[in-house]
């Protein structure tokens, strides 16, 4: 492997020029396609045609010149003396971005389709600063990209631990370097698994996507004129066709859901190295993220009965983010086998959780859920009486609904559980979509105890555990039971001098 | 960075009973001026609504019943608001322990948040126009947990707010 020297200002790989030009062209075409169509459809005289082509040619040349300049002026290097990463860019004015090593949060890779074709990676440096949340070097070959990312992470680590004389870290350094290239384990999610996953997910999402697509189309092109609403014909025909329509919609939703799953998680690949978990996925936008266990704030394992049968589990990892946009810093990895889930848990928590204390919700939670769910039944009854539906039908429907509601809520309630051991808090919930959320106690930022007025007499409270990766709420528990828990948690958080990030 | 001495916690139940109890901390109530501030805010919106209703009453001359219904609804609403303000000012309170800060707020939905000093990112003291008139301050405590765990303590005398801020800052740096 060639050694790269990052201390001198340098450009991206030369193919980066193609990338910049290609991207610029893409934007150009996207903005100008209306004009092109106009010329295609309308008849224009030769002179205007000629002028237009000339104009296009000039625009193309300008774009090329712009791209070349942008490529030439884009230079980066690592300044070890000033302990920072320096990036210069800009066509007309020059932007200089300096990122001190300690501000580097994470170095990731990203690829879109064009970058895949050319065979280059974007190196994305996430920073903790406020000016730019991330900077992107768009065209580096894999080896160089790897080298740069490793170098930066090393420097960042050195910067953070530099103050203390950390012999332990130094001792760990050498074996780590040796094993860095070789992952401890690797897991690949196959196309078949993704298809199975898509088939066993919620199709309603796909249906929703189609509906959203349909409505935007209708707004834009007035589809109503093309498909008039009033189809002449018999009532029977309409009923039959609407049934076919709904089935078709569901089927189409299924296809869309599968396609979305495949595109989003194509080639999902997990590799665990000594210090980090590398996750790569995506067809259209391929990303490769290195997750360090120290940055993981919360972990969620979810599955549904069908997926459980197929051994498909979904992992969601919440990373620390000081901003409020928590969704963005959440990484979702579906289609994992239970063994892999165990491995990842082991990597993140360094130990297995063994619940010692279990807290169950008060029955009031069940009752509240049931009474809220029965509101539609009551409304249905009232409406039914007003419009004088047959009593038998009405009664039957309402009772079936109520029975299903009770069953659902009963089993949902049965599954709700808050477990705690010495180090980890685990919340179990969900009947169809079963999930377990894991939160290490020392990652807690604060605890809130909430109590509506009407819970006071019964001595019931709702709990919220705040972490930098999101909150976990557990509602309707006996205050007498959880006050010691809160005290214990606070004691732990306050007595552990371990950095939460 | 040394790992937790695991031996200390072999038995969760017994240890927990002897831990400091967050419930038993005596909380300090907020300044009396905080109630005044709440009342002023409510009164401002009351004026607007009543003005609106008066204007509307000219147009609704024929619909006496609707007018009185709406009027009655707003009287109840604002009556409730004033009562709620009173309860808030009475109940909201904060407490400082050696290692954390506790803040309780809310009347119908009471919420007690405990934030350890070693999880606080920074503290600031803020005053808006009304605060300046009334000579009170708001202490804002920020954590990495986002808006859910951030704590804003309004209605503090400025000296108290500054003193608290300094005290907390000192304890944060003591832990960092």
TrEMBL record, chain A:
<feature type="transmembrane region" description="Helical">
    <location>
        <begin position="243"/>
        <end position="263"/>
    </location>
</feature>
<feature type="transmembrane region" description="Helical">
    <location>
        <begin position="370"/>
        <end position="387"/>
    </location>
</feature>
<feature type="domain" description="YdbS-like PH">
    <location>
        <begin position="275"/>
        <end position="348"/>
    </location>
</feature>
<keyword id="KW-0472">Membrane</keyword>
<feature type="domain" description="YdbS-like PH">
    <location>
        <begin position="420"/>
        <end position="483"/>
    </location>
</feature>
<keyword id="KW-1133">Transmembrane helix</keyword>
<feature type="domain" description="YdbS-like PH">
    <location>
        <begin position="74"/>
        <end position="151"/>
    </location>
</feature>
<feature type="transmembrane region" description="Helical">
    <location>
        <begin position="15"/>
        <end position="41"/>
    </location>
</feature>
<protein>
    <submittedName>
        <fullName>Putative membrane protein</fullName>
    </submittedName>
</protein>
<dbReference type="InterPro" id="IPR005182">
    <property type="entry name" value="YdbS-like_PH"/>
</dbReference>
<feature type="transmembrane region" description="Helical">
    <location>
        <begin position="47"/>
        <end position="74"/>
    </location>
</feature>
<dbReference type="Pfam" id="PF03703">
    <property type="entry name" value="bPH_2"/>
</dbReference>
<keyword id="KW-0812">Transmembrane</keyword>
<feature type="transmembrane region" description="Helical">
    <location>
        <begin position="393"/>
        <end position="413"/>
    </location>
</feature>
UniProtKB/TrEMBL annotation, chain B:
<protein>
    <recommendedName>
        <fullName>YdbS-like PH domain-containing protein</fullName>
    </recommendedName>
</protein>
<dbReference type="Pfam" id="PF03703">
    <property type="entry name" value="bPH_2"/>
</dbReference>
<feature type="domain" description="YdbS-like PH">
    <location>
        <begin position="91"/>
        <end position="168"/>
    </location>
</feature>
<feature type="transmembrane region" description="Helical">
    <location>
        <begin position="38"/>
        <end position="59"/>
    </location>
</feature>
<feature type="transmembrane region" description="Helical">
    <location>
        <begin position="65"/>
        <end position="83"/>
    </location>
</feature>
<keyword id="KW-0472">Membrane</keyword>
<dbReference type="InterPro" id="IPR005182">
    <property type="entry name" value="YdbS-like_PH"/>
</dbReference>
<keyword id="KW-0812">Transmembrane</keyword>
<keyword id="KW-1133">Transmembrane helix</keyword>
